[in-house]
Structures are given as C-alpha cells and as structure tokens.
Amino acid sequence: MAYHLKGDLLEVCDCKTLCPCWIGEDPDNGTCQSALAYRIESGQIEGVDVSGLNFGVAVFIPGNVLKGGWRAIRYVDDRATSAQEQALLKVFRGQLGGPLADLAGLVGEEVAARRAPISFTVEKGKGTLRIGDGIAADMEPYHGPTGEPTRLVESIFSTIPGSPAYVAKASRFHMEQPEIGVRLDLAGHNAIQGLFELQG
Questions:
Q1: pTM of this prediction?
Q2: Contact 7, 38 (CB under 8 A)
Q3: Hey, where are the domains in the chain?
Q4: For the chain (length 200 residues), average pLDDT per consecutive 10?
Q5: C-alpha–C-alpha distance, residues 43 and 198, integer Å
C-alpha cells in the first residue's frame, strides 16, 4: 500500500447549495470556483508519516466537473518537513494511484504548488477554513428531522470517494487567487464537509 490517509474534508465553492458538480450536472454559473482542504488525522505515504498535517487546493473548473481541464493551485501545510511536502504533493498529484489519482486526473494545469499556513477546524458540525491570506470560509451543515447532518451518498463525483458528504452552507467564502482568475467574496453558497479514508 503506497498510501493510507484518514481525516476530515472541508470544501466550498461559488455554486448555490447543493453544488451540481457532485451529481454530474454543469455548475450554476457555467464555471465552478472552489477551495478545499484535507485535514489528515492519521496517514502515511510511502512510509512517510503525514499525520496531523493539512493539504489544500484552489481550483477554477471551466465547465462540467467530469470533463476536467481544471486549473489548480496546491497548498502544502507550512508545518510539513521537506520529506512530508514531497510525499503530499506526490500523492495529491495522483502519482501513487488510487482514488486521489482519479481526482488529480481532472486537473489540466497545476498553476502553482506552495507552502502556506492552513487552519482547519470543525466543532459540532461547524467548520472554518483558512488557507494563507487568500482563502477564508465558514460553514455549517444542514440537518434532517432527527437532528443528524444531511448526507449525500453515491454521488457521481466526490472529493472524498467512498464516503458520505455532509451538505453545508458557507456563511462566508472569500477567495482571492489571481493566478487562476478567481476573486470572490460571497455568503450563503455551497459547502461540503466529510470524513475520508483514502488508500492506494
């Protein structure tokens, strides 16, 4: 096994709730501008321990999510050692196969890969994400009649393959990534939370 990662995901975009990309439809605005981060609770990549680190991505998706051609900036937790940084980039670039390779295959251009402070907290279903100075989001999941978070399962697209996603709304989403042509300051748009366990 080349890698095994377990933890939490936060994702936010400029689509309305729920983002159509997850069910294979075209994004609400014709394109989708999104930021997401993985908080790795426990994990190893080719023997390198990456537990406790975060990894983020900012993307511009030019059309239907499944057609690819994404422009992406990848962010490595600035607490990572050089070995951890290289391992994280290798797995999230899809070089070690598995579900992360399928996701990476949708990226048409990696515009940049850089280190940044990534702050990621989830408390009682509420989530907060900060990536460097350019990305900030606050979100809270929807709840069903029993009080449990509303879940999305068996979706054709997922950033956490094999795991249910919790449908949420971002009370704030600020994203300024000029290298991929994104400048947003929104409220009340789509967000996703979830647990993941990925291996390849």
A1: 0.95
A2: yes
A3: 3-199
A4: 96 94 95 97 98 98 97 98 98 97 97 97 87 96 93 94 93 96 96 95
A5: 9
